[in-house]
Amino acid sequence: MSTAHEALRVRRCGVLAFAVSLALAASPALSQDAADEGVAEERATSLDTVTVTATRRALDIDRVPVAVTAIGGDDLVAANVQDTQSLSMLAPSLVVTTSGSEAGGAVIRMRGIGTAASNPGLEGSVGVLVDGIYRSRSGLALTDLVDIDQIEVLRGPQSTLFGKNTSSGVINIQTKKPTFVNEGFVAASLGNFDSTVFSGAWSGPVVDDTLALRFSAQYNQRDGYVHNTFDGRDYNNRDRWLARAQALWTPTEDFSLRLIADAVQKRENCCAAPYTQYGATAAFLRLLGGTLPAYDGSYQVAFDAEVRSDVDEAGLSALMEWDLGWATLNGTLSYRDGKSLVMSDGDFSDVDIAVLTGDEGSAITRISEFTLRGQGERIDWMVGAYLGWEEVGFDGQTLFGALAGNYFLGVVPPAPVLPLYTVGTGLQQRRARQSGRTQALYTHNIVHFDHGIDLTLGLRHVREDKDGYGFSVSNSPSCTIPGLPAAARILCGVPLYSASYGDERTVGVASLAKNFDGGGSVYFTYSTGFKAGGINLDPANAVGGTAAFEPETVTSYELGLKKPLFDRRLFLRAALFRMDYDDVQLNTFDGLGFRISNEASARSQGVELEADWYLAPGYKLRGGYTYNKAEYGEDTFNAALHGRQITNAPKHTGLLGFDFDRQVGDKMLFGSIAARYQGEVNTGANLDPAKRQDAYTLVNARVGLRFRNDFEVSLWGNNLTDEYYNMVIFDSVAQAGSYNGYPGLPRTWGIDLRKRF
After folding, report:
1. What is the pLDDT of residues 652-696, one digit of tens each?
2. Taking every annotated instance into account, which residue ranges of this chain make up the domain TonB-dependent receptor-like beta-barrel (predicted)?
3. Domain boundaries 3-756, CATH class
4. Quick one: which of 367, 421, 593, 632 could link to 641 by a disulfide (CB 3.0–4.6 Å)?
């Protein structure tokens, strides 16, 4: 037996032993604990009422006509979900991927729909809000989850209440508020890859019942898991921190003001992409002295340039609530400033062909929003106004390396080459800027009829305007020599171009629901939504391509059922959905650049199932399943996409988890094990068969002890079966027939120490 197979066998045995020990720890008390029916009933129904704000109101999750998954802060800790990207372990219809960097290559998909974000002019299909504040770019939304109260994953169009760029759904993150009692925690986590995470929070009163503060912070460091054979460095690491400070002022019972300041910093060597397949050009790379690591799941690359991803983001926000007696006025003001720097090996090899010396991005957003809500005997009404500004910028540089001429002209040193691609020449400057303004008025109303019938009607009218420009400056000799074929002109400049975009539209929602006396509901919802159009901020592809692109629109139909059963110990939620999209925005990399297009149509339809089953006091089984037939229409401009499953949209996704806690003497033994199955996907926007990712299953687990003084220690493991999978596979840069892929995180494990107070 080979060493690799023996190591795999040992790893799988270790995983089995961990899972068996977890099950044995839980099993002895199942029948014993069930004997106390009074306790069983109390524990089984203690989590029955889950309040969500999916309709911008605090309502029972089972009476909201929206497909929503609510995840509590303690659930995140138990499942070892540390960041937004990991939320898919708890929400089956959610897929989050990253490619070149988190800042510029993050894509959040809901029900199969999302937008590749490497072009700063593109915005996401899934909106992310943190404490009610919209994060305008998916990459800036991939934050660590610290001191969280609850996360709501809303599926389907949410444009009426949450605005543009929520055509597929919303991730609504709510951090814990300041409290008028002293509370908090400190925690430390140590793991493989020299992982170290320190976090903590404190909250308490400054003036009783009037002014309270809350502070939370985290430092997260981990070595990389992709090894560079060229210089021995490890890529795809973690080196980041975040901090949040809050103040809650309640001078009267009718008025509150919450102030939040937060900051995030990332300094990481990310993201490296090993080869997944070699084409004909690979042989010539070897002749030029290149190293071609095996694409066998060994997480290896050979880069001769720095790989780096920096993010600096900070924000201020103010959230007001004022009970006027006849209505409640809510106001939100926010300012956010985000900057990023991405450096990469432009050719993804250790042959000195090209280098990205630094792509700098920036996004500044200012938001003002006010809502007025009132309730009568029959109607719960709301009106709102929204005004947002955004300024987006991009600067970059791509230069030829010492062997660019040899590679592009097919000449092996020391033979001379024509001076077409001189080292240090190329795109000396790439620049793009965009400013935009969004204005909206909206209303959302719930009419209560007899017999538990609710009718929800909402409208939102939006006006959006954007102005932008871009250009690039090149000193590549290949771009100035007359008579040279177009194919030989590489890294050429683009003259200054400018474009304007304006759009005005109305979206809405209509829902009819029947609320059952014993809890739960059945509903039908019709809704429309959109994702903003804009300006192509990639100068290399805006001229001669698409300088401006159209909005993406959706019409959705959803039939849902939410029902408690068996004395409220089994909770079922199901949704049948169909979402019809027009002018789907695509951003496709073809090996030379990214191309934006508005494909004609797409449809996402299927079924979602979720269940929580309280087996006995302290024992819960949870599961979820999504069948999603997300396909492009037959009228797409690219005939290769006709009727095919959309990029990174699995047809089948399933979750299964088991949580327990049981008394052991004066201590509490607790644990959790969860598995997520994701079906086969094609990770490429052009659906090239070489970009297919097979189905895989991720298994996470945790087991620990909680002591009487609220101190706990736990062991955890993620991706316990050490699955190798790629989030995105793409055409290798200027290497026809070769492909690279961005791999997911391998198996990680560690120990957590946590003290609550």
Report:
1. 999 999 999 999 999 999 999 999 999 999 999 889 999 999 999
2. 291-720
3. mainly beta
4. 632
